[in-house]
Amino acid sequence: MREAKRVASNPLLKMKILALDVATHLGFCYYDTHTGFMETGEMDFTRFRGSKRKKADHPGKSLELFQTWIQDVIFLYGEIDRIGYERPGHLKGVNTREALLGFRGILYAEASKAGIPIYTIPPNSLKKWATGNGAANKKRMIQAAEQGNSFKIYSDNVADAVCLARWTAEQK
């Protein structure tokens, strides 16, 4: 699912940012700071299709899906000046840890190939930057992401990506 919007632009900043809340249910935000164009969405990289009772796809399937997607996104948006990446905090479970570390490796490799710098921040630091509280809940992050926008955000993954895009734009 993708949504395109126009938000307040900053004519002094001319940056195209891709911000990713990386997980098997990924939130993303492409933000052109010069024009104010913002496109957001979510992607599902779970390796289970249909019922979870059925045999799962190959363990590398979610990584394959993510790699294809990130290559397509980098190609689609063209010149991306920065990638904002929310570094995973405490990882629960072996499967989650393996998937997120795999996604990170693919992201770093694809960004390196394209010559795009990556700006990272831990989740609690992003929450503190966006809301003033490092332990902010999902509802508060959605409210922070909606500030200054003329649109509603319905997903905490997208909210994190929008806040991350704004944070990335401020980094030197």
Number of helices: 5
Total beta-strand segments: 6
What is the averaged pLDDT score?
85
> What is the radius of gyration?
16 Å
Distance between the termini: 31 Å
CATH superfamily: Ribonuclease H-like superfamily/Ribonuclease H
Helix content: 40-55%
Structural class: alpha/beta
Beta strand %: 15-25%
Overall 3D shape = globular
Question: What is the fold named in CATH at topology level?
Answer: Nucleotidyltransferase, domain 5
Give the number of domains. Answer: 1
Main sheet: strand order: 1-4-3-2-5-6
Q: Which residue ranges are poorly predicted, with pLDDT under 50 across at least 5 consecutive positions? A: none
Instruction: Spell the H/E element sequence.
Output: EEEEHEHEHHH
CATH C-level: Alpha Beta
Report the biggest beta sheet as strand number plus sense, adding barrel if it closes.
6 strands, mixed
Architecture (CATH level 2) name: 2-Layer Sandwich
How is this structure best described in words?
There is one protein chain. Helix content is 41%, strand content 21%. With 172 residues, it is α/β, with parallel strands linked by helices. It has one domain (2-170): Nucleotidyltransferase, domain 5, CATH 3.30.420. Strand 3 and strand 4 (37-44) form a beta hairpin. The mean pLDDT is 85.
